[in-house]
Design brief:
Blueprint: H1 5-48, H2 52-57, E1 59-66, E2 73-75, H3 76-88, E3 96-104, E4 110-119, E5 122-133, E6 136-146, H4 153-172
Parallel strand pairs: 1-6
Antiparallel strand pairs: 1-2, 3-4, 4-5, 5-6
Length: 174
Amino acid sequence: MKITTKFFAFILIVSVSTILSAQQNKDKFEKDKKEISKMLDDFNGAAAKADFTTYFNYFADESTFIGTDATEVWDKKAFMIWAKPYFDKKKTWNFVSLKRNIYFAKEGRLAWFDELLDTQMKICRGSGVVEKIGGHWKVKQYVLSVTVPNEVVDKVVVEKSSIEETLIQQLKNK
């Protein structure tokens, strides 16, 4: 089979275009990772400063906050109502990221993250989903978890068993 010069040139152009496109996507995702990381740092910083408006502006209008207690699943409005007294009294939380991972959906408009946080509860895990809305990354879902070292998990289970047994039964009966 004889390869013509035109065919070879076509293959070369397609190959170079594919490589350049892949590099542009990689560069875009790196830029977006930096934007998301800064947004999450600023989001946590707004809570630490008890800046109610700034903190809640990082949430999308339709968003969910899932707290450390099994009963804490709030939409944005309910979370704002719950959190307002803490912000008013300047008794909010101060979370500082120790380690963060960010991943993207193929189209790049959605990303998810997980991070270890230094908090007043010691190490916690924050995770969630962010969406690019109107050119800005917004929190769609945030999940806060208290980490439990494997060495003490049995002790923690004993402590929480009596508290959570009732809830387990309620959830099973729904």
